[in-house]
Design brief:
The chain is of the alpha/beta class. 44% of the residues lie in helices and 16% in strands. The chain is built from nine helices and ten strands.
Length: 243
């Protein structure tokens, strides 16, 4: 069944009732986690609703945890048949002071992703190239650059390597993201919202993916139905699983 896809939603910040209302709108929620506690909450949500769970430690939270915590979360994914680690990655833009520690945590997730062929749902602010080169170095097969706003020349390398980039509803107010939409191949795009994050004047919500599909179709001069189909196809390729 064709669905709208929110590839990056912090579901643990919503009530089950709120999440249900989005799912009833035919939206598939890929639910990322920020830390051990939210990772457990994401797994609890999966028991009640049909979602795609991701567990991880956000780079902004990495300073609170150690390598053992990261290994425990990787083990949690394996034991619970979770196919996605996220939100994980590196951030040089907002929290550069903790970069070295972020790196040590991220290395654990890279190792797990390589060994068990897991999807990485990536935070890469200001560290787009560093993360990309680590993916290549570690032979990572499945990776998604959440809300990509990095250099366009690197975008070509990312998509050329078969990785995916997140198209966020922030295109409404973010010019550099509109440039990414223009230049990224549809075959490497997935839609997302980062809900319930508030970006400037925009309060992001999962149902914004509907407008994002329409905007991509307009920019690419393609039928909306075709864009929606390709986004679904991209999800299935990334997760190696039918919707």
């Amino acid at each position: 069944m064709i669905k709208y896809i929110d590839m990056h939603c912090h579901c643990h910040e919503y009530s089950v009732e709120e999440l249900s209302s989005f799912i009833e709108k035919n939206i598939l929620l890929v639910c990322v986690s920020d830390d051990p506690a939210s990772s457990m909450k994401t797994l609890e949500i999966r028991k009640k609703l049909e979602i795609t769970p991701c567990v991880g430690i956000h780079p902004w939270e990495a300073h609170k945890y150690n390598i053992k915590h990261a290994k425990n979360i990787a083990d949690l994914a394996i034991k619970n048949n979770v196919k996605c680690l996220g939100e994980v990655g590196l951030d040089k833009r907002f929290v550069p002071k903790t970069y070295d520690h972020q790196f040590s945590i991220f290395e654990i997730f890279l190792e797990a992703a390589k060994e068990y062929d897991l999807v990485l749902n990536l935070h890469t602010a200001g560290a787009w190239r560093e993360v990309y080169e680590l993916l290549v170095k570690n032979d990572i097969n499945r990776a998604y650059f959440h809300w990509y706003t990095g250099p366009l020349n690197l975008l070509e390398e990312i998509t050329g390597s078969g990785y995916y980039v997140g198209i966020n509803a922030a295109w409404k107010i973010q010019e550099k993201h509109r440039k990414v939409i223009k230049h990224a191949p549809l075959e490497n795009m997935l839609t997302e919202t980062d809900a319930p994050y508030k970006y400037k004047s925009l309060e992001l919500r999962p149902d914004y993916v509907v407008e994002t599909i329409e905007y991509i179709a307009k920019v690419k001069n393609m039928p909306v139905e075709y864009v929606l189909f390709k986004i679904n196809e991209n999800y299935e390729k990334l997760f190696k699983s039918p919707l």
